[in-house]
Amino acid sequence: MELYNLSIYEARTAIDKDEISPVELTEAVFKRIEDVEQTVKAYVTLTKEHALKQAKEAESLAKAGVKKPLLGIPIAIKDNMCTEGIKTTCSSKILKNFIPPYESTVTQKLKEQGYILIGKTNLDEFAMGSSTENSAFGHTRNPWDISRIPGGSSGGSAAAVSAGECIAALGSDTGGSIRQPAALCGVVGLKPTYGRVSRYGLVAFASSLDQIGPITKNVRDSAMLLNIISGHDMYDSTSAPIAVPDFTSVLGRDIKKMKIGVPKEYFIEGMDKEVEASVRIAIRKIESLGAIPVEISLPHTGHAVAVYYILATSEASSNLARYDGVKYGFRAEGKDLLDMYMKTRAGGFGAEVKRRIILGTYALSSGYYEAYYKKAQQVRTLIKQDFEKAFETVDVIVTPTSPTPAFKAGEKTEDPLQMYLSDIFTISVNLAGVPAISIPCGFTSNNLPIGLQIIGKHFDEESIFKAAYAYEQATDWHKRKPKL
């Protein structure tokens, strides 16, 4: 097996047994990047020199008998998480040369466990998009079919994991931005419960929805990474002071008598027939492992997209007000302060970001606040209550991750509404703050990956991992690799 195709768990075992070294593994990943990055375009910044230095240090520690879960493991980071001394651009012209003076909490935690930073991955600008076509630094392509999008906004991270350009990656998920690209690239993507993982150092898009999570080659790696990045953080007032269990401890437990909710609102007209068929086969497979499927209803699902695009854009309009050309980032020249502000923001932000700032500013403006923002918050509460009611009778909920497989690049760029509907099955999870994972569950006749989403109760990632791992071990979709 090629070294770049190893999982975290396999690489960790091989390094501990002295079968491979951190330097060999890192060099193999960079050789793979050299071979395929021109085609995939997963990265904004590569940190080869820095990574090889880290790998040599990891090698010395490994020889000295030091054992750490990520010692010598090459991982990629979505380019909206601050990395001290290394560019963090959010794939935006406005932050093109921004070098953070501090480290985000998640990357600090990875550092403490010995990870090797391979580079910063491409995303839709400020994480606003579902296709990684809204980046100021070019489009990322789907490793399974380079004429198609990898999903978004964590498309660079998902494509890098799928193509073997890193061993694992971190992404962020505001309305499906980890799970949807994971589904479209045939890898595993987890959005933890809101508050499980610190957002300190994550460049904010919509602060009440954003959550950082792992994108990996399999479920075990996902649980391993969540163990490391979870936990309360004094620097993030929304991070929950809740104990972190060992998520790997539930892997391999049987799922007999586990109740699996199947919401009727998630099998809708207009969704791709092959996606629906694969997901239904996956549900039957889970049933054959002893779980009990239960039809449930999440009645307010139909309002989720509208609610999301009012709340997320309102928060974005507020969060992105700080990019004014004064403090940091891109700055345009103007005849006075107001002119400089206007030229900076007009020249620094891309079209989709501007669209969302305008939408959000409108929803928050006097006269419209009650009609839009307040109403959306009320409906958000109803969506959250739908999940609470459902979880009174089931352990987890199973749905498709995306209504379609990866679509062609450019296919939806002219129609923002069609693009927004790409996240129809993932958005409710963020609005409710519950955790969810996407795992591979099949392929279309065109050999495009299909994802199965498993949703859990607040802070019950363990049930998700238990069900996901049981299904994964009973199938081999996750073992398939794209031919690049």
Description:
With 484 residues, the protein is an alpha/beta fold. It has one domain: Amidase signature (AS) enzymes (Alpha-Beta Complex). It is 38% helix and 13% strand. It has 15 helices and eleven strands. The chain has an eleven-stranded mixed sheet with strand order 1-3-2-4-6-5-10-11-9-7-8, sandwiched between helices. α4 links the parallel β2 and β3. α2 packs antiparallel against α3. The chain is globular and about 65 Å long. The chain starts with 7 loop residues before the first helix and ends in an 11-residue tail after the last helix. The mean pLDDT is 96.
Helix content percent band: 25-40%
Principal-axis shape: globular
Q: Pick out the low-confidence regions.
A: none
Rg, nearest Å: 21 Å
The whole-number mean of residue pLDDT values reads 96
Relative strand content: 5-15%
Overall CATH class: Alpha Beta
How are strands sequenced across the largest beta sheet?
A: 1-3-2-4-6-5-10-11-9-7-8
Largest sheet: 11 strands, mixed
Fourth-tier CATH superfamily name = Amidase signature (AS) domain
Number of strands: 11
Structural class: alpha/beta
Contiguous helical run count: 15
Helices and strands, in order, run as HHEHEHEHEHEEHEHEHHHHEHHEEH
Termini Cα gap:
16 Å
Assign the CATH architecture. Answer: Alpha-Beta Complex
Total count of domains: 1
CATH topology heading: Amidase signature (AS) enzymes
